[in-house]
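Service request form, structural biology core

Requester: graduate student, group of Dr. S.
Request type: structure prediction, single chain
Budget code: on file
Notes: please return the result as structure tokens.

Sequence provided:
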Amino acid sequence: MSSKSRNSRAFNIFAFGFVLIVIVYLCTEFAFQMRIRNFYTQNESRMIETLASSDSFDGLDARDGVMMFGTPVGPWVALMYADSHNGSIESLALARDSDGNWYHSTYHFCGAFSGYIGPRESIRKVQEGVDGWSFDEENDQEFIQDYQSALTSKPWWALDHAATEAEVRGVLLDNHFAPYEP
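Core staff response, request fulfilled:
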């Protein structure tokens, strides 16, 4: 076999290998993009259906994955968040306020909501004696003050304490949300 035919054969093997690698890469990228699109489509439709199901603060339930901010007598926001850490990070948050405005974000909040909601609920349970929690003025007041000082630095505190719809909108827009039409 001549050196020219050996070089030609080596080139063909190299070219075949390169094409094979490109095909595998493109197939993997396509599957990855389909997975991401599926993540957003499934979560978005579920969130819209859940958030649109009620026009009152009390009509939405945390068991459906809804986080409520505000109060039943003032402006409120119902918010749902989903994220995935499978190979890449996909995030989706949808919110609806008491005026019926919708907001959307793909920012990765990574624990920001649970880091606020958990302590907020612990304070409520201690103050109200929910689920067997009891309020001990001497010991629990320090606990509540520590939690509240940590919570006031979070933007979600402003949502819970907003006096107007304009304040609610400002907090959402300042924290990676944009107006949205479902």
